[in-house]
Design goal:
The chain has 97 residues and is α+β, with helices and mostly antiparallel strands. It has one domain: Alpha-Beta Complex (Aspartate Aminotransferase, domain 1), CATH 3.90.1150. The chain contains three helices and two strands, in the order E-H-H-E-H. The longest helix is centred in the last third of the chain and has 15 residues. The N and C termini lie far apart (37 Å).
Amino acid sequence: MASNRMARVLCGVFRRRDELAQYLETNHVQTNIYYPMPLSKQKGYRAVYDAVPNLPVAEAISRRIIALPFYPEMPEEILERTARLVSEFYHEVVRVI
C-alpha cells in the first residue's frame, strides 16, 4: 500500500543548542537532534570513504542543528509560543512570519 504522507522538518542552527533543547523541553516543547554527528562520521558511511574526511563546516553545523516543532496542522499559537521561548532563551527578538 502506497503512502502519500509527507514529513516536514523545521530545523534551525543555534548557538548553545543543547541548552536550548533542555530549556524548550522544560517548557514542554519537543525538539529532536536528527544528526548528532556529520554523516561522514557515521558507521553506515565509513565504507564510502578511504579515511574520514575533514569537513569542519558539517561538523560545526551538526553540533548546532536542532529540529523544532512543525507540522501542517500545527496551531499558530504553538508556533508563536515556540518562537517566543527561543527568543526568551537568547534574549533576542524573533519575528514569526
